[in-house]
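[step 3/7] inverse_fold.run input=structure_tokens len=243
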């Protein structure tokens, strides 16, 4: 299985001195990095290290200081439909009675106006995205009847249907079996060849070392950034994974 790819163009996403506080608690402290167009990067850290907080800040869902820059423009002046955010399955309510196909179709709403009505092209995109994540046979199934790993793939299909330039995935590989892990990595690399950027969080160090050529290590502050085989050594893992 080839490693996630290296960048093919200029920085698509830049983060400069980003910090987040929850009341008096400092959740993220002075985070700076850049991700190139066509790059797939792992975000590594223990539970509670700030991975989800960072992804939410990048997606514009929580307040932060510092700058998030996409396509060279500050996100304070940017419609963030170019960012696709997929939260952890455990943090979302998937009991609502909605079909898998309709969840994925929701990713097409940004291409319509008020009173969105899907066109044939939208439906074709939905079918293609379901096929890419291996869920075509479950398109009519209620989301609540799927396993956690299957639900995660539904949300990935939705982000693919959104045609976002940047995908932010929170523990997207959690609960996904090894057979499907390979398909997910292939999907990420395929997106990279189209100039998309993917940032996927994980606390699974062996998974990151096996599938990624770059990782960002986080524990409130940014601790490492580089090839996981080089930067995720015994001397850094204690600081990364302790919380």
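[step 3/7] decode complete -> sequence:
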């Amino acid at each position: 299985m080839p490693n996630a790819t290296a960048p093919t163009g200029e920085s698509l996403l830049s983060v400069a001195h980003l910090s987040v506080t929850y009341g008096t608690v400092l959740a993220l402290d002075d985070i700076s990095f850049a991700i190139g167009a066509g790059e797939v990067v792992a975000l590594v850290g223990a539970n509670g290290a700030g991975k989800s907080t960072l992804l939410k800040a990048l997606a514009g869902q929580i307040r932060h200081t510092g700058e998030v820059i996409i396509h060279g423009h500050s996100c304070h002046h940017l419609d963030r439909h170019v960012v696709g955010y997929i939260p952890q399955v455990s943090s979302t309510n998937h009991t609502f009675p909605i079909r898998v196909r309709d969840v994925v179709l929701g990713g097409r709403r940004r291409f319509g106006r008020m009173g969105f009505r899907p066109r044939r092209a939208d439906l074709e995109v939905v079918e293609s995205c379901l096929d890419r994540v291996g869920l075509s046979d479950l398109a009519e199934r209620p989301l609540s009847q799927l396993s956690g790993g299957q639900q995660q793939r539904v949300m990935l299909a939705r982000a693919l249907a959104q045609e976002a330039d940047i995908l932010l995935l929170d523990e997207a590989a959690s609960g996904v079996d090894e057979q499907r892990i390979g398909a997910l990595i292939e999907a990420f690399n395929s997106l990279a060849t189209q100039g998309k950027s993917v940032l996927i969080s994980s606390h699974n160090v062996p998974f990151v070392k096996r599938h990624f050529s770059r990782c960002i290590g986080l524990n409130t502050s940014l601790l490492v950034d580089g090839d996981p085989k080089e930067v995720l050594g015994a001397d850094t893992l204690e600081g990364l994974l302790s919380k």
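[step 4/7] annotate
Helices lie at 51-58, 100-105, 120-132, 148-162, 178-193, 205-211, 228-231, 234-241.
DSSP finds eight helices and ten strands in the chain.
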